[in-house]
Amino acid sequence: MIIPLPRGDFRAYLFDCDGTVADSMPVHYRAWSRAVGEWGGEFAEDLFHAWGGRPVADILADLNERQGLAMPVAEVARRREELYRELLPEVGLLPGILPHVEHAHRELRSAVVSGSTRESVQASLTALGVADRFETLVCAEDVSRPKPDPEGFLLAARRLGVAPEHCLVFEDSALGLRAAAAAGMAAVDVLAGRAG
Question: Does 81 share its domain with 113?
């Protein structure tokens, strides 16, 4: 199955990483659940998916407030990343995404725009054998405002030298799709196969 695309004069493809290029959300959830559990917290799976694309610090602040905990952000984030790395061999490419990654690599410009850290994104892309397919990475460290703000997508477009209206975004989260729309870019919901 190849993910269907909208029509348009696209000169660059901008891919989210987790849940879009990397079929990593189940593994991320397990790492999150274990890390939070070590501090006596819980992270419901439906909430994890609803909060897809949010910064780690925001997620932990909300979990702390909801559950009356004081989980230390840096420590829990480090432990979550450690657990994710251990589970990384279980991650594969999202079905249907590779033809688009390869097409962009050969014919267009391409970038990854992720709310995850550069270290995490690079580890995932390297494990999947596609790290060299993208010209630039825009990660959590590169922006001051996370998705649904369009900052990351607009930064990627500038780095690639492509106008926003000529960029096609591949996303799996509601926050990411809102960010693409705010950037004036067409987008594909890779989980639903819907173009918008």
Answer: no
**What does pLDDT average to in each consecutive run of 10 residues of the chain (196 residues)?**
88 97 95 97 94 88 97 95 94 96 97 93 96 97 95 98 98 94 97 65
Q: State CA 124 to chain mean position distance.
A: 11
The residue to which tokens 């891919």 are assigned: 15
Find the domain containing 129 and state its range: 12-23+91-195
Q: Residue 1 contacts by C-beta under 8 Å, 6 or more apart in sequence? A: 95, 96
How far is CA 180 from each of CA 13, 20, 29, 188, rounded to the nearest angstrom? Answer: 12, 14, 24, 10
Q: Look at residue 54 and tell me if it is in a domain.
A: yes
Count how many domains the chain has: 2
**Beta bridge mates, 17:** none
* pTM, full prediction: 0.90
Q: Do 36 and 75 share a structural domain?
A: yes
